[in-house]
Amino acid sequence: MHHSFYSITVVIYILTCLYTGHHIRQIIIPNSKKNITLTRKIFFFGIYFVLSLSIFLGFTERFGTTIQNIGCLLWGFYFYFLLFCFLSDLFLGIMLIISTWKRKQFVTESFTRKTYIISVACCLLLLVTGAIYAKIIRIADYNVTIDTATKNNSKDIKITMVSDTHLGKQLGLVDAKKWVAKINETNPDLVCFCGDIFNDSIFDVNDLDEIAKEFSKINSTYGTYSCLGNHDTYGIIDSYGNITGNAKDFFEKSNITILHDEYVLIDNSFYLVGRKDASPSMDESNYSCMDLSDILKGASKDTPIILLDHRPQRFGEAIDNNVSLLLAGHTHLGQLFPANILTNITYECDYGLYEKGGFKAIVSSGLGYWGPPLRIGSSCEIVVVNVTFN
């Protein structure tokens, strides 16, 4: 099954490379141009070769961090270039129909070439804009009321929620310093990380101890808690889903308490529950998650429950177990438009506040990014949830 999927993916990728290559050739080596210089031919094949390999350069560590980062950036360019190639051809097709109807020749080689050049210019503009937005952090505020079954000592609380920091080759100590400063500016009572702290491997992170030291500077009344996400894998959990020694050391130094299918009682007011990720990016043959009902055994049914679950998927189970508020991330809100259309189709709620009866969920677009260091149609954000207990 996996081999068939990868084979189909490779075939589709090769076809897209040939498709975009045709457009690049039309710009650099148009059909009407004779006596093409060797320099122009080398320039064409150089661009075509690098763009075609961009996705592989973005994933490989063999050529170093710099090449990997450039690969990720080019991967973003390639994504949009492919999209604009399609839109350009759609536009040229419409113009061809109009020219046939009007009996006038609009779609000349020069017109086609100019259309493709405009497409490249649009891609470059999006690349610059997306790179700028990927470094801007916005604060998303929500006001949530939680109904309690009985009168208790629950106090109103401000929760600062962060997800998808993706620490790794691209995001590191400089970013961590900025994140911590922004989190502390919100003056939180409680800080919650909702998974994907790392970008697959803890071993890819430079200055790990320094980052832990920065995270330990997060100030709050009740501390910092986190669940893990699908990218928190290599060197973080083993094949059974148990947290490894390296990760334990990092989280202890960071003053972050991991809730791994477990819960804690905060200030005798509410339970904070953290779940294992439903499907981590690793071998899952020995991996398992507890049912939420089993996690909550022994918990008082009259005490409100706030749940940290990386993916916004298990809403039904949360509702069945009387969860008042669920905090999640994972979707990045697509990160790059129009991928947000896919996340909107895939998830019941891919961003923002979701309500169903007394159940509420808040899904964040994340603080970091994955792959291309770009944000287009979504933002890097820190979520502040003002919770009132009714």
Can you list the strand order of the major beta sheet?
1-14-2-3-5-7
Compute the number of structural domains: 2
What is the CATH T-level topology of the largest domain?
Purple Acid Phosphatase, chain A, domain 2
How many strand elements? 14
Helix-strand string = HHHHHEEHEEHEEHEEEHEHEHEEE
| Rg from alpha-carbon coordinates | 25 Å
What does this structure look like?
This protein is of the alpha/beta class. It has 2 domains: 2-133, no CATH class; 139-389, Purple Acid Phosphatase, chain A, domain 2 (4-Layer Sandwich). The protein has 11 helices and 14 strands. The strands form 3 sheets. Strands 1-14-2-3-5-7 form a 6-stranded mixed β-sheet. A 6-stranded mixed β-sheet has the order 8-9-10-11-13-12.
Based on the model shown, name its key terms.
390 residues; 14 strands; six-stranded mixed sheet; Purple Acid Phosphatase, chain A, domain 2; alpha/beta; single chain
In terms of topology, how is this protein built?
Elements: H1 2-28, H2 38-52, H3 54-59, H4 65-102, H5 109-133, E1 137-146, E2 157-162, H6 173-185, E3 190-194, E4 200-201, H7 208-215, E5 224-227, E6 232-234, H8 245-254, E7 256-258, E8 262-266, E9 270-274, H9 292-295, E10 305-308, H10 315-320, E11 325-328, H11 339-346, E12 352-356, E13 359-363, E14 380-389
Parallel strand pairs: 1-14, 2-3, 3-5, 4-6, 5-7, 9-10, 10-11, 11-13
Antiparallel strand pairs: 2-14, 8-9, 12-13
Helix pairs in contact: 1-2, 1-5, 4-5, 6-7, 7-8
